[in-house]
Amino acid sequence: MVIAKPYHRIRKSNLRASPNVRNADGQDTNEAPPIQVGAGEETMNARSPWSEERAAAVIAANRHLRGALLPMLHALQEEFGCIDEEAIPLLARELNLSRADVHGVVSFYHEFRRSRPGRHTIKVCRAEACQSMNADGLIDHIRRRLKVDFHETTADDAFSLEPVFCLGNCALAPAVMVDETLHGRVSPARFDAIAASTLATEAAR
Ligand code: FES
User: Does any ligand 1 atom lie closer than 6 A to the CB of residue 175?
Assistant: First the structure.
C-alpha cells in the first residue's frame, strides 16, 4: 500500500513549467524554472481548527473503504493538518481497535504528523540522483538557515521541513518542493531566494 504522496508518479502532463528564469538584465540563467504541480495555485497548508464534529464526519465519509484506518488518517490530516490526539479514541471506537493500535499506525508512518505543520511545507529530496548533486550539503544549509531538523517547524510557524525520496525531478537535481511548486537545481543561495519569495508572496496576499 502506498502511503507517501506519490510524487514519483507525477505525470509530465500535470507539470506546468513557468517561463524561463531570467536575471535582472533579461538574460537566461542556469537555474531550472519552478514547476507548478496540480491546479497551478501555490497553496498554504490546511489549518482547520480541531472539531470533533468535523472529525466524526471525515471518519464517517471513509468508513465504507477497505482498510479504512489509513484513508481515515489521510483524510483527517488533510482536514486538520495533523492527526490530533483527540482523533485517536474516535478512530479506535469506530474501527473497534485499541488506542494503542491506532497510535502504533500513526507513529509507524512518517507521513502522519502529530503536530500542526507550518504555513508552508518544504520537502527536500534525499534520493540517489539528488544525493549525487550534493543534496546533503543543501540539507545542511537548509537546517542551519531555518534552525530546524526534518519533521520540525520553524519557531515563527512559517516552514515545516520534510524529507522525501524522489520528486520525479532527478534530471534537475537537487530538487526541492515548496508547497505545490517543484524547484530544480537548487543551490543554497537559490533556496534562500525561494524561501524569501514564498514569504513575500504570502505577505502580499
Ligand atoms: S532523486 Fe529524483 S528528484 Fe531527487
Answer: yes
- Rounded to two decimals, what is the model's pTM? 0.70
**Cβ distance 186 to 138 under 8 Å?**
yes
Give the whole-number percent of the chain exceeding pLDDT 90. 67
Q: How far is CA 44 from CA 14, 48, 128, in A?
A: 20, 12, 28
114, pLDDT greater than 50: yes
Q: Which atom of ligand 1 is nearest to the CA of 169?
A: 3
CB 141 within 8 A of CB 174: no
pLDDT tens for residues 8-45?
A: 333 443 444 443 444 445 555 556 777 766 554 456 66
Question: What is the Å distance from ligand 1's center to 143 Cα?
Answer: 19
Identity of the residue numbered 33: P
How remote is the CA of residue 30 from the centroid of ligand 1, in Å?
Answer: 19
- Does the CB atom of residue 167 touch ligand 1 within 6 A? yes
Cell of 201: 508572496
**DSSP characters over 142-154:** HHHHHT--TTEE-
Q: Which residues contact 109 (CB under 8 A, 6 or more apart)?
A: 3
Q: Does residue 135 have its Cβ closer than 6 Å to ligand 1?
A: no
Q: Does the Cβ of 173 fall within 6 Å of ligand 1?
A: yes
For ligand 1, whether the C-beta of 186 sits within 6 Å is no
If DSSP codes are grouped into helix, strand and coil, which group holds residue 22? Answer: strand
- Pocket flag, ligand 1, residue 55 (CB < 6 Å): no
